[in-house]
Design goal:
Blueprint: H1 2-18, H2 21-31, E1 42-46, E2 54-59, E3 62-68, H3 74-83, E4 88-93, H4 99-102, H5 105-111, E5 113-118, H6 127-138, E6 143-144, E7 151-154, E8 157-163, H7 171-174, E9 177-182, E10 185-189, H8 195-203, E11 212-214, H9 226-232, E12 236-239, H10 252-260, E13 264-267, H11 268-271, E14 274-278, E15 283-287
Parallel strand pairs: 3-4, 4-5, 5-6, 10-11, 11-12, 12-13
Antiparallel strand pairs: 1-2, 1-14, 2-3, 7-8, 8-9, 9-10, 14-15
The structure holds zinc ion (ZN) (2 copies).
């Protein structure tokens, strides 16, 4: 009789696992940010890499580098990490394969040991991307392609993947879009995602409201649509952009949309490195210039 009961239990368990009940529960449990630890703080360094993107997020001693600027910015990233003695990175995110995002990650990989590396693609035909992959391989790290809705903790902060469209032929549209929740404050990182991706994120029903928005695609008018901005409703926006760039970034339309929405804007071309520090309730900014 006992043997039959054991068989029935095994079959029930098998079907539960097969239809993913356990996995859903685990993911939902993570959707609520963990309680802030005593004295918890988050620091986001929007590193000035000219017409490119790089941001270092540190929360309660855990760290994540999101993009690394152009190949020529490898030294900048190396020096920045060295200055903070940040020789271990829990996460590295390459939002998409364009050089102005992946290029300088090789500089980071020369200085720091990386635990987990996220990217929407595992191959891309460019020297910058090949070097990125080689540098990761030298550390024994494979690229992880995240799923939309994945979440993980960074100290007391919760990081959620809002978009990652690996199959898209336009590299900008593959961009990994991240939301970071820290207490009552939140930060959005949008890579070079454009308005179609913004719409898809809204259609998927994600909460996008954020204290600080890293403006998509260096302030190009192809990003930061009205509805997106209305839903994000940020207090602050950061634009990573190079002085006198040939694209005319940031575009006037985007600056006026941000101004209409009453958003305080910080630009790396005007301020250099921009550091935002938050305690879970409020955030403050310090800039190099
Ligand atoms: Zn870019
Ligand atoms: Zn791009």
């Amino acid at each position: 009789m006992d043997a039959i009961w054991e068989i029935i239990q095994t079959i029930v368990l098998f079907f539960l696992l097969l239809f993913g009940g356990g996995e859903d529960t685990a993911q939902q449990a993570l959707v609520t940010p963990p309680p802030l630890s005593e004295g918890s703080y988050i620091q986001v360094h929007y590193i000035d890499v000219g017409q490119a993107d790089a941001a270092l997020v540190i929360c309660d001693g855990e760290s994540m580098l999101i993009d690394g600027g152009n190949v020529g910015d490898s030294d900048v990233i190396y020096t920045y990490l060295d200055k903070l003695s940040m020789d271990e990175l829990d996460y590295m995110v390459c939002t998409h394969a364009h050089e102005d995002h992946v290029g300088g990650l090789s500089g980071a990989l020369t200085y720091a040991a990386v635990e987990t590396a996220f990217c929407p693609v595992t191959d891309y035909d460019s020297k910058a991307f090949t070097n990125f992959k080689t540098n990761l391989a030298n550390q024994g790290v494979d690229i992880t392609v995240p799923d939309v809705g994945d979440s993980f903790t960074l100290g007391s902060a919760l990081v959620t993947v809002l978009s990652c469209d690996s199959e898209n032929e336009d590299p900008n549209a593959t961009s990994i879009v991240l939301r970071i929740d820290h207490g009552e404050t939140s930060f959005l990182f949008t890579g070079d995602a454009e308005q179609q991706t913004e719409q898809e994120i809204l259609d998927a029903g994600f909460d996008v409201s954020a204290t600080v928005l890293k403006v998509g695609h260096h302030g190009s008018s192809t990003s930061t649509g009205y509805q997106w901005l209305y839903e994000v409703d940020p207090d602050y926006a950061v634009i990573s952009v190079g002085k006198g760039n040939s694209y005319g970034h940031p575009h006037e339309e985007v600056l006026s949309r941000l101004s209409d929405a009453g958003v305080t804007v910080y630009r790396t071309d005007q301020r250099g490195d921009i550091v935002c520090t938050g305690n879970g309730t409020t955030v403050s900014f310090a800039t190099a210039k």
